[in-house]
Amino acid sequence: MAREKDADGTVRGKPAHHPGTEAKGPTRAVVIVPVLTRQPRGDDDTNRPRLTRSADARHDEAVGLARAINLDPVHTAVVTVNDPRPATLLGSGKVEEFAEIVKENDAELVIVDHPLTPVQQRNLEKELHAKVLDRTGLILEIFGERARTKEGTLQVELAHLNYQKGRLVRSWTHLERQRGGAGFLGGPGETQIESDRRQLQEKIIKLKHELETVRRTRDLHRAKRKKVPFPVVAIVGYTNAGKSTLFNRLTGADVLAQDMLFATLDPTLRRVRLPHGTPIILSDTVGFISDLPTHLIAAFRATLEEVVEADLVIHLRDISDPDTAAQAEDVERILADLGVDASDTKRVIEVWNKVDLLDEGNRSRLLADASDGSKGPPIAISAVTGEGIDALKAVIETRMAGELEDLTVTIEPAQFGLVDWLYRNGDIVSRTDNEDGSATISLKATQSAREEIESRLRRKNNG
């Protein structure tokens, strides 16, 4: 979409013609990206400035979010906001200008890529004569469309209800209901807005009970996995970083993977056997995004607990994105909210995806810069081409099962049932079949595999 700048810094998108929309097509939407000139601050402890995104990156993400639910962005604009208005966020002149744009483009919906208060949303709808969705509402709509499992549906519905609770604006007196009694004793009853709030609160309580049941079920599943036990490795990252593509590459699964924001929502777990036989449970989680609504973080707590409980966390970054550093900061902030320290190199592996999209010069420079960092060198991969996947598997296995060790064992004839296990759980270097029927096998195995081999041999000997 072509964009051009005004004297005041506004970046405009020219309406695009989309064949087939003259009939019943996608909902026509105007996308507004307000850029506040005040520098956002970091957390309260450090008070460090947050990394700011470029206007272009914010614009592209907002358009991507709109298209993720089949909206047709007929006009887009990045607007610099020096003095946010309590009533409408934007200045009155800009509101009038966008009202004309909405009318000219016959738009039914206006997306404002910024959190709006209920008052701001209501006032903008009156002035623009169109339905208005802020960033939180848009993300909720996407999640509502993507949820497939019962758990995901419950989580999204709870987030929706909490979001709507503060946006009830109806208080029509002619819909008042009367309490019992006659005359003045009855008095005015519950107004429509009070009735709506009560009903919403009842639904919220019911959903929380249902989600508590889901949480208990997840706890039982985790307890069973710990009895086996298989270590859990969770993949986290900014939305569209390639988590599902990597998950499919590592597991051979067919989870939906598209170049689309929030292509998958419901978490998926698969058992994976690493090259030297170490079994793990790999978890693909919901994508993170900047300014993730608190309603969603609270509602998806049961799902995000998979990350909290994971033995190892893969922080996957789209290194080809110009805003990859800001995206990484957003992910690290959400992980910190969940109690996961992203700087803990023993528990968190930083993986740079989509290196196939970089030219050789940029790739070498980025890897050189990263090797000097406090987190240690990241692992560069391409989940699409498979580049670096073997190195990633090796690092995961080393973290989960220890370094490879050289080991030589002699298998007696009565113990030959172990030979197949050795071939599946180690790298066989050599094998010598002895005259007495035994076999001497030299292999490389992880520390945990060596301990398991020694334990199995002892059991055989004692048996």
Brief account:
The chain has 463 residues and is an alpha/beta fold. The chain is built from 14 helices and 15 strands.
Descriptive account of the structure:
This protein is of the alpha/beta class. Helices cover 41% and strands 20% of the residues. The chain is built from 14 helices and 15 strands. A six-stranded mixed β-sheet has the order 1-2-4-3-5-6, with helices on both faces. A six-stranded mixed β-sheet has the order 8-9-7-10-11-12, with helices on both faces. Strand 10, helix 10 (324-337) and strand 11 (348-353) form a beta-alpha-beta unit.
Keywords:
single chain; 463 residues; alpha/beta; six-stranded mixed β-sheet; elongated; disordered N terminus
Strand content: 15-25%
Global mean pLDDT: 79
Unreliably modeled segments: 1-23, 42-46, 170-189
How many distinct helices?
14
What composes the largest sheet?
6 strands, mixed
Element-by-element helix/strand order: EEEHEHEHEHHHEHEEHHEHEHEHEHEEH
Structural class: alpha/beta
Instruction: Determine Rg (CA atoms, Å).
Output: 28 Å
Distance between the termini: 74 Å
Topology:
Elements: E1 3-5, E2 11-13, E3 27-36, H1 55-68, E4 71-81, H2 92-104, E5 109-112, H3 118-128, E6 131-134, H4 135-146, H5 150-165, H6 192-227, E7 232-237, H7 243-251, E8 268-273, E9 279-284, H8 294-299, H9 301-309, E10 312-318, H10 324-337, E11 348-353, H11 360-371, E12 379-380, H12 389-401, E13 404-411, H13 417-425, E14 427-433, E15 439-446, H14 447-462
Parallel strand pairs: 3-4, 3-5, 5-6, 7-9, 7-10, 10-11, 11-12
Antiparallel strand pairs: 1-2, 2-4, 8-9, 13-15, 14-15
Helix pairs in contact: 1-4, 4-5, 5-6
